[in-house]
Design a protein that fits this description.
Elements (H helix, E strand, L loop, with lengths): L7 E6 L2 H12 L3 H7 L3 E9 L2 E9 L2 H9 L11 H4 L3 E6 L5 H16 L4 E4 L16 H15 L7 H5 L2 H5 L7 H20 L4 E7 L5 H21 L7 E4 L3 H13 L2 H5 L2 E3 L1 H7 L6 E6 L18 H6 L2 E8 L13 H13 L3 E4 L9 H11 L15 E4 L3 H12 L8 E4 L19 E4 L2 E4 L8 H4 L19 E2 L1 H4 L4 E8 L3 E4 L2 E4 L7 H4 L2 E2 L5 E2 L2 H13 L2 E9 L2 H11 L5
Parallel strand pairs: 3-5, 6-10, 6-11, 7-8, 7-9, 9-10, 12-22, 13-16, 13-17, 17-22
Antiparallel strand pairs: 1-4, 2-3, 2-4, 14-15, 18-19, 20-21
């Protein structure tokens, strides 16, 4: 084996004097002189404003000349370089003897991705990255980056936290800066072309419909396309073309928080007037004449298909289409969870056909979330779709599927995983079979609304946050439910975890999931959530219940949250026995 080559990371004062001292020092260093001054390098300008950092990340074939170019813009208050004169800024310069143009671009891209996901980074001033395809030595990227990040951490652990902390953050997982798969990239480019074609030809009410099951990368595709539209619109605006007005919406409180952080960290709000909001807010604010250019909808299956509270329409997707030139909808029919979101098949097909006629219907098929082999994916599919329990595979690869005899053992196993920094985003989640009413606390029988199984009990999601000491913690507001440390002592539901990843998902299948006569049964009579079990009035006036279907969807959402593993406890004895038999391990 060849020797491991270490990267060179230099930290200097970010001004003319610091740059001159760096150049003099490197000139006198022999080989280091070649690597830092003759090879491509990556650099990070950074400064701290109050509690948080702002950064600019770049790469150059001539770091001295490039840095001087940045300094030449310091007199312009509208440019990020002006901040270098008003704050104590520092500059990190990174070199490696294997760096070439492609490799430095990929290092730059990954640094942008990581640093946008750091809690203490308020803003990155770059535009988009430029991910590379095949090149030599692309196989060294991961190894070199880990060494670079480790050296950067020695300088500043606040700006460069441990990698696992970044990768577990919800902002990281939804970031538009991820390198897309070829499947995602192909769909993204077609969507962008269709958006601009529609805008230039004056077409209105266009629908682009993207289907994909849980974990196929809908959110990353959506956020990446959203961001790219702004960047390309700015490039066109510089040539005299008109600017563009886009809106990102999702009917999910947790994800609204994440998207808001993303647009703020990328400067989209102040620079491009990018808007993140819920669908009802968008519909109430806009009319068919006061419209936007592009409406992006993540988790479009969560849109309302009947009136509710502040929304008085009949179908939110149609109302959004009426208020936008182009609507881009990410949809998974298997994640519809409530009766007011239920899609009648003929109405859903009408929208698909509208997209299909314009060649605007796409599907994502690759499973990107779960590190599970195909036979594990098949096992979950058979359980949630075909209502069958097959033998649980012994060879699970990097994934772990386990069955537990009691909730205490399940909790201990999840807490054991969460105690490890590499798996700290491991949580208990459950079917909505226990009472929870945020507005009517008089019906509560203990201090918190709880999931209770025999003598074992844990608060439902968001309950511990009501404690006086946590109510005042502003930092928690920017974190998704699973990222908040106190939630290790809670049980989450689909309404806090849908659309997010866990390392290990400890799934409690409540009384609504049974096993009878060799088949998994979904029993809505055991639910404790009216929006899943109440009647739905269909377009023909007929009233129907869809609780069984919605419970099936709920279980699938819960079972597909874990990236590294799925742990299951079933309350129903027959189901628990069937799962234990399918598991067939000596110790459970």
């Amino acid at each position: 084996m060849g020797r491991e080559i270490a990267p060179i990371v230099c930290k200097i004062t970010d001004d003319e004097r610091g740059l001159k001292e760096f150049e003099s020092k490197v000139h006198a260093s022999g080989k280091e002189n070649d690597i830092m001054l003759q090879f491509p390098t990556v650099y990070i300008h950074n400064w701290k404003d109050k509690e948080d950092f702002e950064v600019y990340i770049g790469e150059s074939n001539n770091i001295i000349q490039r840095t001087k170019q940045h300094y030449s813009n310091q007199a312009d208050p509208d440019k990020w370089q002006y901040q270098l004169t008003t704050h104590n800024s520092t500059l990190y310069i990174i070199g490696h003897e294997h760096f070439n143009k492609s490799l430095t671009l990929d290092i730059e891209n990954r640094l942008m991705l990581y640093m946008m996901s750091v809690d203490h980074v308020r803003k990155i001033h770059n535009l988009r990255g430029n991910p590379q395809n095949k090149y030599y030595p692309a196989n060294e990227l991961d190894s070199i980056f880990r060494k670079v990040w480790k050296k950067l951490r020695k300088y500043n652990k606040e700006l460069f936290p441990v990698e696992s902390e970044i990768k577990d953050s919800a902002v990281f997982k939804a970031s538009p800066l991820h390198k897309l798969t070829q499947e995602q990239e192909n769909i993204k480019e077609i969507i962008i072309q269709k958006i601009f074609d529609s805008l230039y030809t004056g077409k209105k009410n266009q629908l682009i419909f993207v289907e994909g099951e849980a974990g196929t990368g809908k959110t990353v595709l959506n956020s990446s396309t959203f961001y790219e539209i702004f960047i390309r619109a700015e490039e066109k605006a510089e040539k005299g073309d008109n600017s563009i007005h886009c809106c990102m919406m999702v009917n999910h409180d947790e994800q609204i928080t994440i998207y808001t952080q993303i647009v703020q960290k990328l400067g989209l709000t102040e620079k491009y007037n990018a808007v993140v909001c819920k669908p009802t807010t968008f519909i109430n604010k806009h009319t068919k004449t006061d419209r936007v250019n592009v409406a992006f909808i993540d988790e479009a299956h969560l849109l309302l298909t009947q009136g509710k509270q502040s929304y008085r329409g009949e179908n939110q997707l149609q109302d959004i289409i009426d208020r936008a030139d182009v609507t881009v909808a990410m949809f998974d029919e298997n994640q519809v969870l409530t009766t007011d979101q239920y899609w009648e098949s003929d109405i859903l097909e009408k929208f698909k056909e509208q997209a299909r006629k314009s060649n605007n219907l796409f599907e994502l098929t690759n499973q990107l979330r779960m590190r599970a082999p195909e036979d594990i994916i098949d096992w979950i599919d058979n359980f949630t779709k075909n209502q069958q329990i097959n033998q649980i595979p012994n060879n699970q690869g990097k994934y772990e599927l386990r069955i537990f005899k009691n909730p205490e053992a399940l909790e201990l196993a999840i807490k054991d995983k969460a105690a490890d920094d590499n798996h700290k985003l491991s949580r208990l989640i459950a079917t909505y079979d226990w009472a929870y009413n945020n507005k009517d606390t008089k019906k509560r029988i203990s201090k918190y609304w709880e999931v209770s199984i025999g003598k074992w009990h844990k608060p439902w999601n968001r309950e511990l946050k009501k404690a006086p000491e946590l109510k005042k913690d502003k930092a928690l507001k920017s974190l998704s439910w699973a990222e908040q440390p106190q939630t290790i002592d809670e049980v989450g539901s689909t309404f806090t975890i849908q659309g997010f990843d866990l390392n290990y998902a400890g799934v409690i299948l409540g009384p609504s999931v049974k096993y009878r006569n060799g088949k998994v049964v979904f029993d809505p009579s055991e639910k404790n959530y009216k929006r899943m079990t109440q009647n739905r009035t269909l377009s023909n006036g007929k009233k129907m219940k869809f609780g069984e279907t919605l419970t099936k969807h709920e279980v699938r959402v819960l079972m597909t949250r874990g990236v590294e593993g799925l742990y299951i406890y079933a309350c129903d004895k027959e189901l628990r026995d069937a799962l234990i038999t399918a598991y067939r391990r000596e110790k459970i």
